[in-house]
Amino acid sequence: QMTAECSTLEQLRQKLVEIVKCPVCFEFVGTSVVQCARGHGVCAKCKERLTECPLCKAKYTVEASIMLASIMEQFPKMCDNQKQGCQALCIQEHEQFCEFRSTKCRVSDECKWEGTLNQLVSHLETQHREIPIIKITNENAINNYDPFLVFTPSFTFKKWKPVIAYDNFFWKRTEIDDDRKYLMIKFYHLSKGKPQYTFYAVQSFVKSNLKYSYSMKASTNNIDEELNQGDPYCMVVPYEELFRFFSTNSYLYYDFVVIRESRKQ
C-alpha cells in the first residue's frame, strides 16, 4: 500500500515539474511567468525575445497572473543542476547532496578535469588507472602505505586518495609539511543524496608493538578548506610520533578501515 502511494506521489511530482517548465528553455518558469491569451506560460527571460506563444501562436497578455505567480512562489524550485541532468526539485538540502553537482579530480595538480559527481568514478578508472581506488565492502581493515621522503629538508607532501566504501565515494586527504612538523589526514564524504549513515575512517600506524590510531568522522563540509591542527575531524600526528613508524625504505605503512553507523531519524 505504501509503495503504491509513493509511486503515485512520484508520478504527480513529475507531472507538476513538467507543467512548471518553460516550453522554450525547459527551466523552471519562476514567479515572473508570462502568459499568452490562451493561458500558456513562459519565463520572463524567454519572453523578451518572443512576440507570440511558441505553443499556440497567440499574443501575450499585458496583465500578470497574480494567482499563478503566487503558486509559483510556493512551488519548490528546480535543482540548479538540471542542465547536467537532474530532474529533482530543490527540497531538504537536495542541492548539497545532488549527484549531478559539479566536482573536480584531485589526484594530481596536473589533471584539470571537472564534471558531475556521478561521472567522477568513471573518470578516475579510465584516466588514472595508475592510482587505484581503495574499495571497502566491510569493516575489515586493509593494509596500505604512503611513500614519504621526510628526510629531505623543507619537504611538503600532499595526496588525495579516492575511496569507495559501501557504495559511497570519499576522498582521503593527506598532508605533511616540514615547517609545521606534523602530518594531517581528513576524510571527506561526497554523498549522492542525503546521507543515511554517518561514516568514520579509522587509520592506524602499526610497527612491531607500537600503534597510533585515530577515528575520523567523515566530513561533508567545504573540501577546499585549509587543514588546521584544531579540527576535530582531522587526524594530526606530530613528527616525533610519526618517525617511529617509518620502515627502512621510508614507507609509512598503515591499516585503514571505514565504519558506518545509521543516522537517527
UniProtKB/TrEMBL annotation:
The record's InterPro entries line, in alphabetical order, gives: SINA-like_animal, Sina-like_RING, Znf_RING, Znf_RING/FYVE/PHD
Domain of life, per lineage: Eukaryota
Gene Ontology MF: a single term? zinc ion binding
Limits of the RING-type domain:
22-57
Q: Which GO terms describe its cellular component?
A: cytoplasm
| Keyword annotations from UniProtKB, A to Z | Metal-binding, Zinc, Zinc-finger
Answer whether the UniProt record assigns the keyword Phosphoprotein to this protein: no
Q: Which Pfam families match?
A: Sina_RING, Sina_ZnF
Q: Does the keyword Zinc apply?
A: yes
One GO term of the biological process aspect = proteasome-mediated ubiquitin-dependent protein catabolic process
Query: SUPFAM superfamilies from the entry?
Result: RING/U-box (SSF57850), TRAF domain-like (SSF49599)
According to UniProt, the name of this protein is RING-type domain-containing protein
Its source organism is: Cuerna arida
Q: What is the lineage of its organism?
A: Eukaryota, Metazoa, Ecdysozoa, Arthropoda, Hexapoda
